[in-house]
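Hi team,

As requested, here is the filled-out complex form for the phosphoenolpyruvate run. I kept the field names the same as last time so the parser does not choke. Let me know if anything looks off before we queue the next batch.

— J.
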Amino acid sequence: MARTHLIAGNWKMHLSPAEGRELVTSIASGLGGTTAEILVCPTALGIADAIAAAAGSKVQVGAQNCHWEVKGAFTGELSAELIQSAGCSHVLLGHSERRQFFHETDETVSQRLKAVLRAGLVPVLCIGETLSERESGQLETVLRQQITGALAGIDAAQLTQLVVAYEPVWAIGTGVVASTEQAQEAHAFVRSVLAGVLGDLANDLRILYGGSVKPGNAAELLAQPDIDGALVGGASLKAEDFLGIIAAA
Ligand code: PEP
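And here is what came back:
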């Protein structure tokens, strides 16, 4: 089955609601006839404005994380149900910044993933190795552990919409992009691990590449057989750059 490219922007802790609204308006008006699916993930405060600005366009809006409980005494958190009720379609999970700065583990990522599925949203599961893990030959072990840890106890039938984002930690926000060969090789490996867990469904699932994707390197990355889109940080904050990546898809 042909996999439609997904180009997703992770705005992290950037842009006020008004700035986000302006950015979504510019993106929506510059999409042309793209066949790619488009997603932006603003801060929690920016979600409502982004959704209002995206109305009637191809732009979908997602959250950057969620809690696993439906509700309760969890100060500062958002449940998948709250995110769904705000009008979001996707949730990023297990981003390396969450793992690094907020002590996310494969176990908590898995709990969040189950919550996203419970709420009927699309999970974007982020995985990736650090430079020292790559250099010490642990790339495959780390990726396999992150995938199997997150998917543990979840039926393939529930994961038909799953999106995986392979983001080598050493390429995020550094300006250092993985070579197309490194990226394709890692994506093929990720797909093989997904096939081991989910069978044939792995051929239908999208695996995005993330890590310093820019308009200048997007076309070559997106032309690789197992790269089905991009998760973009820095270059998603400017309409011109994000649209340049979308045009390459
Ligand atoms: C990211 O944060 O997911 C990311 C890929 O960032 P950047 O594009 O800035 O490297």
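Two things worth flagging: DSSP finds ten helices and eight strands in the chain. The two ends are 17 Å apart (CA to CA).

Thanks,
J.
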